[in-house]
Design a protein that fits this description.
The chain is an alpha+beta fold and about 140 residues long. It contains two helices and nine strands; from the N terminus they run E-E-E-E-E-E-E-E-E-H-H. It starts with a strand and ends with a helix.
């Protein structure tokens, strides 16, 4: 059994997730990054994407790892040797959003970006990336 690291995913309203994991993978500003127990300390911004929490076998007789996924619109991640803290405005799992709602949000984001036609579109691109992450977390199985 791999060593575990404590993880907290915190939004303005509540701690969205708190527990232990063998691995945390997050959409860092410069690319996806993973954190294991005893990771060197770091602080990074997050881009819109999917945070994956791998918590190890589902039971004593299982070899299959459990994985939770959260769509985030960006935020910050602090990694210390014994814990990971993610601060974000939203963290939505597939239990929080329906497939049709996620697809509708993606469609609206694509339309909003298309209407910009070369104008300053950073906000629309971020909204599109978050909508794509929402669609990704609604896929089954995990």
């Amino acid at each position: 059994m791999a060593e575990r690291i404590r993880i907290s995913i915190i939004t303005p309203g509540a701690e969205k997730f708190g527990g232990e994991a063998e691995l945390v993978v997050a959409p860092g500003a410069a690319g996806d990054l993973g954190a294991l127990a005893h990771h060197a300390p770091l602080l990074t911004t997050l881009r819109p994407g999917v945070v994956r929490v791998v918590s190890g076998p589902a039971g004593p007789d299982s070899n299959t790892s459990q994985r939770l996924e959260f769509a985030v619109p960006g935020g910050f991640m602090e990694v210390l040797p014994d814990k990971v803290v993610i601060l974000t405005d939203e963290a939505l799992s597939r239990d929080d959003v329906g497939v049709e709602d996620a697809r509708a949000r993606l469609q609206r984001a694509q339309e909003a970006l298309a209407q910009k036609k070369g104008a300053e579109d950073a906000l629309e691109r971020r909204q599109l990336a978050f909508a794509e992450a929402l669609v990704e977390v609604t896929r089954r199985p995990v």
